[in-house]
Amino acid sequence: MQKLLLLFLVAILISSGSVLGQGIQAGVKGSINSTWLFNNHVSDAAGISQGYVPSFGQSYGLSGAIFFSKKLGVEMNFFYDTHRQKYSNDDESFESETTLNRVSIPLMLKLKSTTGAYLEIGAIYNALTKAEFSFAVDSLALPIRDVKPSMAKSSVDAMLGIGVDINLFAGLSLTTALRFWGSLTDLKGIDSFGGDLSDELYLTAVYDGEYQETRGASAGFVVGLVYSIGKIAGE
C-alpha cells in the first residue's frame, strides 16, 4: 500500500505541469469525529459485561488537490488522526478507553458543482504511530498500557464526503464537509478489558477460541481554509 501511495503521488507531480492550466487547490483542514471500534465479541456482550460508549477524536493537517476541470479533481490529505473508543457496562462499574494515533492519508476523487458544493469518494490509508489503553474501576485507575503490538500496523478505510467551498476573496475559500468512513481491513486490537483479541489463549479462555475482526468507523465535520489558482479560482 505504501508503494501504491508513493506511485500515486509521483504520478500527480509528473502530470502537474499539464494540469496547472485547470487548477490547483491547497490549504489546511481539520475535523472533529465520532469514532468507533467494532468487534462482535464486545457487541454480543449486550452491555451486561461490556459495551461501547460514544467516543470522539480529531484529525488535522494539510490538503492539496489538482483539478482536471472546474468540476473534476483529485484530492490528497496528510492528517494526524486520533481515533478513540470508550467502553463501560450497564452498571458503569468500570471505564476503559483505547486510543489510536495515526498518520492518515485520504485519496479522493472530487466532483464539484458550479455553486461550490462537492462530492468526494475514495480511500484512506492509516499508519499506526501509537496505541494506548486505559482502565479504571471506581476511583482506581490502572497505569496506561502500550497496546500497539496488539493492533494492525496499518489499515485502509473507504470514505464518502459531501461539502461546499465558500469563496471569500482572492482565491481563498472556507471549506466545510461531512465525511463518513469505515474500515476495509482488520484493525485487530483489544476488548474493553484490554485483552488481546488475537491471542489464542485469551480467546480460548474468554470467547470460546473464536477470532473476530475489529473494524473502525467514523463520521466527522471538516472545516478548513484552501487557496485556489487556475480556472477553479475563476480565472
Secondary-structure blueprint:
Blueprint: H1 2-19, E1 23-39, H2 40-43, E2 51-53, E3 55-67, E4 72-88, E5 94-112, E6 117-137, E7 140-141, E8 145-146, E9 154-169, E10 172-183, H3 200-207, E11 214-230
Antiparallel strand pairs: 1-3, 1-11, 2-4, 3-4, 4-5, 5-6, 6-7, 6-8, 6-9, 9-10, 10-11
State the main characteristics:
single chain; 235 residues; mainly beta; 8-stranded antiparallel β-barrel; 3 helices; 59% strand; elongated
Outline:
This protein is mostly beta strands and 235 residues long. The chain has helices at 2-19, 40-43, 200-207; strands at 23-39, 51-53, 55-67, 72-88, 94-112, 117-137, 140-141, 145-146, 154-169, 172-183, 214-230.
Mean pLDDT equals 88
In DSSP terms, counting alpha (H) and pi (I) runs of 4 or more, how many helices? Answer: 3
Strand portion, in percent? over 45%
Uncertain segments are 13-21
Structural class: mainly beta
Helix content: 10-25%
Question: What is the chain-wise order of helices and strands?
Answer: HEHEEEEEEEEEHE
Distance between the termini: 37 Å
Shape: elongated
The major beta sheet can be summarized as: 8 strands, antiparallel, barrel
How does this model look, in words?
This protein is mainly beta. Helices cover 13% and strands 59% of the residues. It has 3 helices and 11 strands. The chain has an 8-stranded antiparallel β-barrel with strand order 1-3-4-5-6-9-10-11. It is elongated, with a radius of gyration of 21 Å.
